[in-house]
Design goal:
ten-stranded antiparallel beta sheet; 10 strands; Thiol Ester Dehydrase, Chain A; 7 helices
Length: 295
């Protein structure tokens, strides 16, 4: 049997095993992590005082609508893969053999329902919804639902991971934007390390440049997908503090590398609907783009 057919058979077996499973990750919506992430973001955006970051962004309840949920109910890191990330929802063969060398954050959506109470218990329930082979790669869709201790729904998230054995090569025809940045930022290696620590993330492409280059052929470290989402949501909160975010749908296009100067644009698309774009300030290459709906 050809190797690719064996791999597809292993993938099918894994999909049939993983999809019925539910993963429950308890946590508490505590002030400490919220404060640490706020300090990190204020450093990135160079806000110097609470008045500059707006009153609403400084309130822990409002932080829930700015991408802060990513730092709660994180993976437990009990099945570490060769790239450092947890393999608990990664395609595996017999004897937990890793079928793919690399994993990438592809796209996602977030429905913001209501914020948790400060220092209250919350639970995230995760389930793999779809496993979609694409040539020699595979997309894995994961649904996540945050609920309060009383069972109230707080947030619903969908994320899609791309698993591949192809090494990184630069895209010769990347998607570009004509937008001008409202603000520019640079993410340093220290910023990446801080975010990795806040999210209990051991993925080596975010903190180990030798691994990133020698194993995955990346030129340098990558900015985390959820960090990018948080950047655009947090900046939107700075610009529109009175709007309440309801839903974000986004996808990634090109990798956002450490120390690159990135721009963020916000373009109104209708009544309380906005296009948010994170892109290279110099080359106008889009890193991540999403549609945000508010009320």
């Amino acid at each position: 049997m050809p190797t690719n057919m064996i791999a597809r058979e292993c993938l099918t077996q894994w999909a049939n095993t993983i999809k019925p499973k539910k993963f429950t990750i308890p946590d508490s919506y505590s002030v400490g992590p919220i404060t640490n992430l706020t300090n990190l973001l204020n450093g990135v955006f160079k806000t110097k005082s609470p008045s500059e970051q707006s009153a609403s962004n400084s309130i822990p309840q409002s932080s829930w609508f700015r991408g802060y949920h990513f730092i709660f109910s994180c993976q437990q890191n009990q099945q570490i893969g060769s790239d450092g990330y947890d393999n608990y929802q990664a395609p595996l063969g017999d004897n937990h053999h890793q079928l793919y060398l690399r994993r990438l954050w592809a796209r996602g959506s977030i429905q913001f329902i209501q914020p948790p109470k400060i220092n209250s218990a919350l639970t995230c329930t995760e389930q793999v919804q779809k496993v979609k082979p694409y040539n020699d790669d595979v997309f894995v869709d994961i649904d996540r639902k945050f609920t309060s201790d009383e069972g109230e729904l707080l947030l619903v998230e969908s994320r899609t991971m791309l698993y591949t054995n192809q090494l990184y090569t630069s895209n010769k025809s990347p998607k570009l934007t004509e937008n001008e940045p409202k603000v520019t930022v640079k993410i340093s290696p220290i910023d990446l390390l801080k975010y990795s620590m806040l999210t209990y993330n051991l993925h080596r492409i975010h903190f180990d440049p030798k691994y990133a280059h020698s194993v995955e052929n990346l030129p340098t470290l990558l900015v985390h997908g959820p960090f990018q989402v948080t950047l655009i949501l947090y900046y939107f909160g700075l610009q529109y503090p009175d709007l309440i975010v309801q839903q974000l749908k986004y996808r990634t296009y090109e990798p956002f590398f450490v120390n690159d100067e990135a721009g963020i644009s916000i373009v109104a698309k209708g009544s309380n609907e906005f296009q948010l774009t994170l892109f290279s300030a110099e080359q106008k290459i889009i890193y991540l783009q999403g549609t945000l709906k508010c009320k």
